[in-house]
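Crash report, auto-generated. Payload:
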Amino acid sequence: MPPDPKQHLAIVLIDTRNPLNIGAAARAMSNFGFFELRLVRPYSVAYEEAVSAVGASDLLRNARLFDNVAEAVADCSLIVGATGLGHRVFEHPLYRLERAGRLLRRHLQSARAAVLFGSEKFGLSNQDISHCHWLLHIPTRPEHDSMNLGQAVAVTLYELSRSPAAARRLPEAAERATEAELERISLLLEQVLQLSGYSDYSRETSAHDKTRRLVHRLCLTSRDAAICTGMLRQILWKLTHPAG
Amino acid sequence: MPPDPKQHLAIVLIDTRNPLNIGAAARAMSNFGFFELRLVRPYSVAYEEAVSAVGASDLLRNARLFDNVAEAVADCSLIVGATGLGHRVFEHPLYRLERAGRLLRRHLQSARAAVLFGSEKFGLSNQDISHCHWLLHIPTRPEHDSMNLGQAVAVTLYELSRSPAAARRLPEAAERATEAELERISLLLEQVLQLSGYSDYSRETSAHDKTRRLVHRLCLTSRDAAICTGMLRQILWKLTHPAG
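Recovered output after restart:
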């Protein structure tokens, strides 16, 4: 069995000031199944507060601390910096997250990679960026492209977790009603409407089709089809037993 | 010009308790260009703190307050609930975000939609869900699928903002070196290596090709090609003027 590509990715937070942001990044990592958190020069109070916070996960306690970026990414063969566009001109290739995610996923199949996130206030420094092979950019509005750190980590890890193929076969999706269930409802509805005087099904032949088409358009689940069948049966009973 | 589909979407936060979460959701909306925020029964202290916070955006001040979900989504023709899977069995169709995003984007082309987010502690109630046409689920780990509210909003809006086509033509990407630039570097490198005694280009004919292939594999930008050319020219000068 191949190793989980997600275990090949290190998230590296550089010069983080706010303990809430370290905790938020760790939570997003746990949500999406990434566990390798590395902190470069975190403001020490921030790191201690984050770890001692109620609910701090193993992930946060297992985070590794480094004095500089070079040591934090020494075992990785692809280093990517996450950055806003700001007003800087970058010498590095810069990819939108959609494309960066594809490149990262491919690399993680067989080798280790790191994504670097800079401080809340200044982002990545030019020195941080000098360690990167390329940069990624989350497609925010140019007028407001500075994202919250935890949200930027969450969005990046979501992109790496996307799987349109898996999304097509979500097992929890409610099961659609079968043709037999819909036919039973159509016939019951016909009887109810006929008895109620809504339409004369014995004269208007297209009424059958209209009723069946309506029932099909409802997109009923199997479960809801059973509920509707029960409702119609009860109404039918009352219509045929008015004094009951 | 058609109206911006993003302006057709309302983000509806229900029973939110923490002012930081309201602010975080508003920031994510502003980042991704969605501006219609609706709050149903926010814990009143939370709402006031969020609005009075330094940096509270117009978006937050323009948020509309409602007493119930029905009023908050009265003008929308598609209502979607965001939910974790938890241990609940849903009667509604449930789509992973990748697919839900496609369905939502299609609807927003021509009509209004709302995405509902429940309280931090309990998520959407069964009553909230009864207003929904279907549910969406962010693909988190089953063992830890409870997301931070602001992060869940950010990830959802990122999915709605994804554009693989736009990602392929990011104008800020550094320009690749031309063939002429790479050829110039190959020839200079050959001269330098020949003079340094690294390889005898006059005897080993495949050496030309090896050098050219190496230069191509470097994936140089036009800017970096100019830097490398300058470096090689200087080295070449020093090699031919050893006493200089």
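Post-recovery validation: Chain A touches chain B through 49 residues (CB under 8 Å).
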